[in-house]
Amino acid sequence: MRANVGYIVGLAALAACAAIVHAGPNGGTISGKVTYEGTPAKQKPIDMSKEPSCAKQHATPITTETVVTGPSNALDNVVVYVSAGAPDDNPPGQAAKFEQKGCQYIPHVLAFQVNQSLEISNADQTSHNIHPLPKVNREWNKSQPPGSAPIVDKYDKPEFIPVKCNIHPWMHGNFAVLKNSHYAVTEGEGGFSLAGLPPGKYTITAWHESYGDQSQDVTISGSETKTVNFTFKAKPY
Amino acid sequence: MRTQNTLKLFLGIAALFVMPLVVSAQEGESHIGKLSGHTGAGKQLYFRYCWGCHGYRGDGNGENAPYLNILPRNFVAATFKCRSTPTGTLPTDTDLYNSLGRGFNNSNMPSWIELTDQNRADLVAFIKTFSPRWKTDKAGDLIKVPAEPKLTVESIKHGGELFQKLECWKCHGQEGRGDGPSASTLTDSNDQPIRPYNFAAGSRFKCGSTNEDLYKIFITGLDGTPMPSFADVIKSEEAWDLVHFLRTLQVTHKSPELALWGSTKDGAEQIASRRITGTPTGSGIKQ
């Protein structure tokens, strides 16, 4: 009975969503929700006692973020993007911003485009080193003491890049460097919406740092809205 | 029949045009001063001296690799520790050539000084064939090392303050013994455990043994390891102060910095208290 109610509420939410997006200007829209099934790994609390300036910023100890979930099995921090069918876009003018605050990366997953400016800042009272670990792009590693200017960089090849700080081993983040501007990162309810897609056949891929990726093909004609949902199998370890 | 012949002829001519392109793509060269190294000669040397550890494909998975503590360099990734170029860029041919001659301290990579200069130049040319990055990228801009300022007690003291401020001690430890609070958690880019440099243990750094080599390490960082680049956050005079200070942590290695520091009251006490323990590999230790 309870599941039924959830189902109806979900449908209603989707319908509402669709109605809002449908009013959008030109092109079709692909929207949907990312969920998980099974039991996701329990996130471990992080011991920041070695870095008191960060520890005191968190009233309750924060946990690792390898799997972040929302209400009704929603899966967060999933990058949903058009992996095939759309032309490569020029990077937007504004920079993608990545902040280190309370010895955490904000956001945990940052999606941006190839050759888009990336700005990394340090809001902490401690030194960090930013060490992205790409395989196809070039690898660098820079120190950023408190109060220093943001590090500005860009990547010229599409790739999912883990980021870490060697000084604070619990700090982990991800860069998603994508070829075009049709992408979204799920948060909260796990919903996403890719708008402004001209008619055509697209491959939509959802990428999660722990659960890998999934793809679905969608054909858009006119200014319709198609629903694509992704379900990841959660691993309990 | 006729069209087939025409087709063959066309393909033949096309092949003639393509051939030199393919050959020139494989025939890389290296340039170290007046020396020029050649891929062909380097290949023969590589499959005699290097492939046992660095592997048939240059990916660091040679026959001996499982037995080595610091894994052999993966030339396919083209990430190199010792460079005179900024972090994230390719090293110069001279950097690779010097690394071959020097060997790597605290690892299984020996010095190949017994090979001729020409041999080493040839090897550099061949090593560059493993990664496509050498075809698309150029080596980074050379890092300029300004002349070393005069050594003073003040510069050593200021270097010590920077050691705290830049939080070098988080990994290297307050006495530079490689035992800071983060030291045990460090991994390199292959997820292999890696130790921060222990200054008390010896005199040679990863990329050479002179003050200038140490200066360069701050600016370039050691790519592929946790050691970051400080190029954007440190001024050149500060970097030199840090060099002077770090020399005083090398308590088993005789240097002008250690002598000057030892002539001050605080310094003498500090050195005396630190000299006994550690891994005695320096000449200053009496057995």
Molecular structure report:
- Chain A is mainly beta and 237 residues long.
- Chain A is 11% helix and 40% strand.
- Chain A has 2 domains: 1-40 and 62-77 and 188-237, Immunoglobulin-like (Sandwich); 87-181, Immunoglobulin-like.
- Chain A has helices at 2-22, 52-55; strands spanning 28-37, 79-84, 96-101, 104-106, 109-113, 118-122, 128-132, 142-144, 151-153, 159-164, 172-178, 183-185, 191-197, 200-208, 212-220, 225-227, 230-233.
- In chain A, the strands form 4 sheets. A 5-stranded mixed sheet of chain A has the order 5-11-10-7-8, with no helix packed on it. In chain A, strands 1, 13, 16 and 17 form a 4-stranded mixed sheet that branches. Chain A has a 4-stranded antiparallel sheet with strand order 12-2-14-15, with no helix packed on it.
- Residues 9-24 of chain A have low confidence and may be disordered.
- In chain B, strand 1 (29-32) and strand 2 (35-38) form a beta hairpin.
- By secondary structure, chain B is an all-alpha fold.
- Chain B has 11 helices and 2 strands; from the N terminus they run αββαααααααααα.
- Chain B has 2 domains: 30-136, Cytochrome Bc1 Complex, Chain D, domain 2, CATH 1.10.760.10; 153-274, Cytochrome Bc1 Complex, Chain D, domain 2, CATH 1.10.760.10.
- In chain B, helix 6 (153-165) crosses helix 9 (236-249), helix 8 packs across helix 9 (236-249) and helix 10 (256-262) crosses helix 11 (265-274).
- Chain A binds chain B through residues 50, 126-127, 129-131, 133, 135, 138-145, 148-149, 151, 166-169, and chain B through 77, 79, 86-89, 133, 137, 165-167, 170-171, 181-182, 185-187, 189, 221, 223-233.
